Amino acid sequence: MHVFVTGGTGTIGSAVVAELIETGHTVLALARSDKSAQALTDAGAEVLRGQLADLDVLRTGAARSDGVISLAFGSDYSTEDALARSIVEESAAMTALGEELAGSDRPIVTVSGTPWVPGRTATEADPLPVEGPVGGRGRSVNALLALASRGVRATAVRMPRTVHNEGTGGFAGLLTIQARRAGVAGYPGDGTQRWPAVHARDAAVLFRLALESAPAGTAWHAVADEGDAVRDIAAVIGRRLGLPVEPVPQENFGPFGPIFALDQPASSAHTREALGWRPTRPSLLQDLENIQP
Predict the structure, then answer these.
(1) Distance between CA atoms of 87 and 238, rounded to whole angstroms?
(2) What is the pLDDT of residues 252-276, one digit of tens each?
(3) How does residue 133 score in pLDDT terms, banded at 50, 70 and 90?
């Protein structure tokens, strides 16, 4: 399959590109810079120059492909306005990609987050939130999945709060960055809230499986660890960096503060049974041992 990939140089995207090529697919990948283009070329992908906001370029990439994996998302999370702009940009991109694929029965796999459900572990059957700081992403994903009625094999892979590789990435990675800045490995609340996690290479396998065989309109959970307590995550970060570990106000984490404070474990039992996905890479707490002081 010739696959168009956006976001192919990020933590998830670089693993997805490698997984696709290693399993016999070919990749056309969007690149917005010379550095990204070189990284994709070195990985064995064909490059299409452009940005996520270049909707005509996205349509061209989709038209040239047998399927699409949409992973690109803005990197500025510093304010609620910046996060909102990234969500709007992502929504427009998914709309353009989906419209290009309409009536073709070709697959598109997009990315979202696992939902949080008060008092229990979230499953694949739970709906995404459509209100709150990231509600716009939920609405965009739902709109894409609805294209199943228009001849698009649209599916979504829901990612946990931390997608990690060599001790970096996701919410845990943001905790590490904040710890280096503040001189303390801090966590919001009492730290008993749980975050699910997955290794990027395990997640990449699930994206491939969804691309190859998942039915239209379905959502899947790329969850290897159902939920590590945030204070346990912070404890490893503090030990690796030689910093004290203590609770800090959730406001210290900007627009992600309210999300960081939520207890949000998630299960992938249905995904494993239905698609045969079996994560094999190190757990989050194991992988955080790769943090360099």
Answers:
(1) 32
(2) 988 788 889 999 999 999 999 999 9
(3) confident
What DSSP string describes the chain?
-EEEEESTTSHHHHHHHHHHHHTT-EEEEEESSHHHHHHHHHHT-EEEE--TT-HHHHHHHHHT-SEEEE-------SSHHHHHHHHHHHHHHHHHHHHHHTTS--EEEEEEE---BTTB-B-TTSPPP-SSTTHHHHHHHHHHHGGGGGT-EEEEEEE-SEEEBTTB-HHHHHHHHHHHHHTSEEESTTS--EEEEEEHHHHHHHHHHHHHHPPTTEEEE--SEEEEEHHHHHHHHHHHHT--EEE--GGGGGGGHHHHTS---B--HHHHHHH-----SPPHHHHGGG---
What mean pLDDT is predicted for residues 149-159? 97
CB atoms within 10 A of CB 3: 26
Q: Which domains does the chain have, with CATH numbers?
A: 2-162+197-225 (3.40.50.720), 165-196+227-266+283-290 (3.90.25)
Distance between first and last Cα of the chain: 42
- The mean pLDDT value for 115-132 works out to 93
Q: How far apart are CA 96 and CA 20, in angstroms?
A: 23
> What pLDDT score was predicted for residue 87?
83
Q: Is the pLDDT of residue 74 over 70?
A: no
Question: What is the model's pLDDT at position 280?
Answer: 98
Which of 214 and 77 is assigned the larger pLDDT?
Answer: 214
The residues near 284 (Cβ < 8 Å, ≥ 6 apart) are: 162, 164, 172, 197, 225, 228, 233
